[in-house]
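agent> Task received from the user: take the single chain below, predict its 3D structure, and emit structure tokens. No templates, no multimer pairing.
agent> Plan: (1) validate residues, (2) run structure prediction, (3) serialize to tokens, (4) report one or two observations.
agent> Step 1 OK, no nonstandard residues flagged.
tool_call: predict_structure(input=
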Amino acid sequence: MVSKGLRILVVEDESIIMMGFKAFLKQLGHIIVAEAYDGETAVELAETFRPDLIIMDVKMPKLDGIQALEKINNKPDGIIPCIFVTAHSDEQLIVRATEAGAFNYLIKPISIDSIKAAIEIAMVRFGEYRILQEELKNTKESLTNRKYIERAKGILMDQFGVKEQQAMEMLQKRSRNTNKKLIEVAKEIIKSSGVNG
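)
tool_result: status=success, residues=197
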């Protein structure tokens, strides 16, 4: 269950539909931090406000919703989850929207129940996405660290004529004695040996 009070950017070029979104979102306990009526403004407002969620029509003036989301999520400060809204259930459009980073999709006309469900699903999917991204980052970091440690062990084995297990014990001992992480000790050994890591 998603907590109330999400900060939402609403992007919709039809003012009557925008009013409906605002009423529904307010009823659901969310905060509309900004509203845009075209794709270019959506990009600017997303950068300014960094909302928790964007609800955006696909067909927009100046820049369509998919192009706008691609620009928004191409920034270094991470992606913002988005629910796309459209009057058409076009298969190609759904594929494009998904590739751009949509976490859900709503087909007009919108009801308070459909928007509530879409927000719940989008935020759960976004939470899962963030967990996967963190796991991927940790895996990459772990592999990189492993390479440094293996390289440092190799250097110690060459320098002291010891076996791999003894080299590892030397690394661990130096780590404990200096109160530094194993990876830091490994990097120091590589650096002091003059060998590129």
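agent> Step 4: summary for the user.
Strands lie at 7-11, 31-36, 53-57, 82-86, 102-107.
agent> Done.
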